[in-house]
Structures are given as structure tokens and as C-alpha cells.
Amino acid sequence: VQLVESGGGLVQPGGSLRLSCAASGFTFSRFDMRWYRQAPGKERELVAAITWTGGSTNYADSVKGRFTISRDNTKNTQYLQMNSLKPEDTAVYYCNAYSLWLGIRRDYWGQGTQVTVSS
């Protein structure tokens, strides 16, 4: 199982970034997908989530209206479009795949990608 994030980097406040998470080794289309982030000295927090069909999404209040989560099940990839970035969005962003099926929980994580918002 692999989840490989990409697209992080340094961006000025007000700028945009698009994160990608390429999945392999499991049936991507059967998993709900999430983006988490962890800033220095803080706990990991859920940023955005999308169901396995892509039909439902949820966002942390702090990113609503600025971030958009999406997925392409034909490419086994999920995305996080981040607009109007703020310094407080600086964190390591992690891709997560989650499934609870017939009582069996599967929870996979990527290695993370650094996003730094600074002038």
C-alpha cells in the first residue's frame, strides 16, 4: 500500500497550491479519502474529507470556502486545491485512506508534504 503526496511548497499569503495524493496497492475507489495537517507543536487535524463515490465532502471550519477536496477514481488520486492561503495554513499535509467494511477497519497514511505560507 502506498499513498504519495505531492504539490507542497512555499507560497505567499493569498496564493494557491494544489496537493495530489497518488494511491496504489489497494482498491482506491472503495475508500473514503481525507486530508489532515499538522503544524509544529499542534495536534494533527482533519482538513477535508470525501466519500468513496465523491458524492459528499466535509471541511474544517478554518478552510471552508478556500479549500476544495476532489478525487479521480480512474487515476487513483485525490486532490486538495488550496486557495487564499494564510500563514496559519502552514503545516505538513497528510493523505489518508479509510475504510470500515464488514467490521474491518483499514487506515492508510502518506508520508506528508510540507506547505509553508510566508512572505
Question: For the terminal residues, how far apart are their CA atoms?
Answer: 37 Å
For the biggest sheet, the summary is: 7 strands, mixed
Number of strands: 11
Q: What is the 3D form?
A: globular
What fraction of residues sit in β-strands?
Answer: over 45%
Helix-strand sequence = EEEEEEEEEEE
Helical run tally: 0
Low-confidence stretches: none
Helix content, binned percent = under 10%
Radius of gyration: 14 Å
Mean pLDDT rating = 97
Helix-and-strand structural type: mainly beta
Overview of the structural elements:
The chain is mainly β and 119 residues long. Helices cover 0% and strands 55% of the residues. It has no helices and 11 strands. The strands form 2 sheets. Strands 2, 4, 5, 6, 9, 10 and 11 form a 7-stranded mixed beta sheet that branches.
Keywords, please?
7-stranded mixed β-sheet; 0% helix; 4-stranded antiparallel β-sheet; mainly beta
